[in-house]
Design a protein that fits this description.
heterodimer; A: mainly alpha; Arc Repressor Mutant, subunit A; 3 strands; B: mainly alpha; globular
């Protein structure tokens, strides 16, 4: 059974980027460029998200001649829901007044 | 070297279950400008070489925790051998009772029926057991495979060398000469098949080795299983067909043990028929498999390094000197050569390379001393113990030979004393007549001694050395009775050889030859320090 550990900052960024348009398929390199995360960190994030059922993957069906099909990604319902939940948590944290002395 | 070539070379090392991601990285690389490609390829290299483990870190954590638990349990058992031996005996007895109950409840046949039904469904293209979660199916199947495909075959291969039926077979059956090689091939195949299941994922799946090895091992296993089934079927068929009970006995044996052959057969056939299943033949992921290979190499290196730290010459000499008086007393009691006993003690202490020998001996002997319901396991736990490395059953056999009643000999080659033949070793034809009257030896322990008494006595150096002298005296007398004009009393190499090979092959004859142990004992026997210590005239070299 997988633990419900809160995702890292980088994972959250990837999830937010994917959740902007949950129905659209995205490419790995596009996500790198949008989030500013390097490929060496992006792929482990994508792999883990897919392992946890938060990411749907597919291969391009229409392949232009001369290049291999690209891998496509979009969030699953659970992935989109997690992105929404994280977004709400962050919004709530931003609005919460800071208590004096609290770190 | 282009970035594309670099990345293509690196992603080839990605485990099979992550290969799709390697292809994804390569496809992305094609979309980039050349200036960006190298940065992307270098960044992807780390992922390709160390991809996230399948099943997440939880899977790896479980594996590490499981391994640590096994290591801790083994360390606990070895550091407290008496308790460890008691646990071991209880676990084995529990297993024996479980097997017995499962036989009575026909669990084996139910497992066989379930597997055969599943295989038949798959052959029709229908996935069986869809209501059972996949993880549960995998665990049950692995448990069945471990029991019927590893545990049972190992026990089977261990049993047949000492099983009385095997002794008969060796002489009666025309194909008896094939049994030895068949056993060796079966043992090697079993080892190779399970090694491949553990470590095979470390090899790249597209290589010839990775594609061919599992099929070769599966085919060979199936052929060997059929050969063993045929051989054993021939053995259990009644020799005397006129008697009804012979048929009943044979059919009951086939009914009880049939699933032990049929279940592995169905499992092997299933893997061979269903190519999708062949990938499930590998138990570990690529990453874990590579880690397992590294761990196995580390353990092998560590064990070898520990084993090389054997006792030094001076240390072993000190042990011999410290037991000098005891050795003399024991030798005097049984009229044997003290220098020979000392040489045996030296060799058994100096040349033993197992770093955990004493702890393992204690664990096994405690379990043996408690007494186990299974004769085969009893034999496996019958390890050599103490100062002169004597097996408890060898001692029991020696004691029985010295005091046995002729009526206890039921047939040539075997002896029945006390609880039955399980208490004594099989005897060669040289012992088929009662010699207790002729050898006139008072054994160092009574015939009726309980197992735990025997084990406890063997762990006491003084008693152990006395038992060593007693066993050497038995062989001396056996050979002197066979030919009063000739003696092996002054042949330390031959006596040491007999001491090691046991009663089954000790038949006296005119041209005895020593084995490696006998040669080593003779070498030590003639060393000046030993001669000086025991101040005895050096007998002529044999």
């Amino acid at each position: 059974m997988l633990r419900n550990r809160p995702p890292s900052e980088q994972t959250a960024r990837v999830l937010f980027a994917l959740a902007e348009d949950p129905k659209a398929w995205r490419h790995g390199y596009d996500l790198c460029q949008q989030t500013g995360i390097k490929a060496g960190a992006m792929y482990p994030i994508l792999i883990r998200l897919a392992d946890r059922g938060l990411l749907e993957t597919a291969w391009e069906s229409e392949i232009p001649k001369g290049r291999p099909p690209r891998h496509l990604y979009r969030p699953t319902k659970a992935g989109a829901a997690l992105a929404r939940e994280l977004n709400e948590q962050r919004a709530a944290a931003t609005l919460r007044p800071r208590v004096a002395g609290a770190r | 070297m282009t970035a594309e070539r670099w990345l293509a070379a690196v992603v080839r090392y990605m485990p099979a279950e992550r290969a799709e991601w390697g292809a994804a990285m390569l496809a992305e690389l094609h979309q980039m400008k050349p200036a960006e490609q190298w940065r992307f390829a270098i960044s992807c290299t780390r992922v390709a070489l160390f991809p996230p483990p399948k099943g997440g870190h939880e899977g790896m954590a479980k594996g590490i925790l499981g391994t640590l638990a096994i290591v801790a349990l083994a360390a606990l058992a070895l550091s407290n051998p008496e308790t460890g031996g008691t646990w071991l005996a209880r676990a084995i007895n529990l297993h024996i009772v479980t097997v017995l109950v499962s036989r009575i409840l026909l669990v084996d046949w139910l497992v066989l029926a379930g597997l055969a039904w599943g295989q038949a469904k798959r052959a029709k293209g229908v996935e069986p057991w869809t209501r059972v979660p996949a993880a549960m199916q995998r665990r049950v199947r692995l448990a069945v495979e471990l029991y019927f495909g590893l545990f049972s075959p190992v026990l089977y291969l261990a049993i047949l060398t000492s099983w009385p039926g095997m002794q008969r077979l060796r002489t009666d059956w025309a194909f008896a000469t094939w049994i030895g090689p068949l056993h060796v091939v079966a043992a090697v195949t079993l080892l190779a098949a399970w090694a491949w299941r553990l470590y095979g994922a470390a090899f790249r799946p597209e290589t010839k080795l990775a594609r061919g090895a599992p099929r070769l091992l599966l085919c060979l296993s199936l052929v060997l299983l059929a050969a063993f089934a045929l051989k054993d079927l021939t053995m259990v068929m009644p020799a005397n067909t006129s008697q009804q009970w012979h048929w009943t006995y044979s059919l009951l044996t086939i009914f009880l043990f049939g699933p032990m052959y049929l279940i592995p057969g169905v499992l092997l056939y299933g893997y061979l028929c269903d190519s999708a299943k062949t990938s499930e033949f590998l138990l570990l992921t690529t990453r874990t498999s590579r880690a397992a290979i590294a761990a196995a190499v580390a353990v092998a290196v560590l064990t070898t390094a520990l084993a090389m730290q054997r006792r030094g010459d001076d240390e072993v000499k000190r042990i011999v000197f410290s037991q000098s008086a005891t050795i003399r007393t024991a030798a005097a009691r049984y009229d044997t050569d003290p220098r020979l006993i000392a040489a045996i003690v030296y060799v058994t202490h100096r040349d033993q390379l197992s770093p955990l020998r004493e702890s393992v001996e204690r664990v096994a002997s405690t379990a043996w001393g408690i007494g186990l319901a299974d004769r085969t396991v009893n034999q496996a736990l019958d390890l050599s113990l103490g100062a002169a490395q004597i097996k408890p059953r060898t001692l029991q056999t020696g004691v029985a030979l010295a005091v046995a009643d002729p009526r206890d000999f039921s047939r040539a080659g075997f002896i029945h004393v006390g609880e039955g033949e399980g208490n004594v070793e099989p005897l060669g034809v040289g012992w088929s007549q009662q010699i207790g009257e002729k050898v006139k030896l008072t054994p160092p322990i009574r015939l009726e001694a309980e197992r735990n008494e025997i084990v406890a006595a063997l762990h006491i150096p003084e008693k152990n050395l006395e038992m060593c002298a007693f066993l050497l005296a038995l062989y001396q007398r056996q050979w002197e009775i066979a030919d009063p004009a000739w003696s092996i009393r002054h042949r330390p190499d031959i006596l040491a050889t007999l001491y090691q090979i046991g009663f089954v092959r000790s038949k006296p004859h005119g041209s005895p030859r020593s084995n490696a142990f006998g040669d080593r004992v003779r070498e030590v026997y003639h060393q000046p320090w030993l001669a000086a210590e025991f101040q005895q005239q050096q007998p002529p070299r044999g």
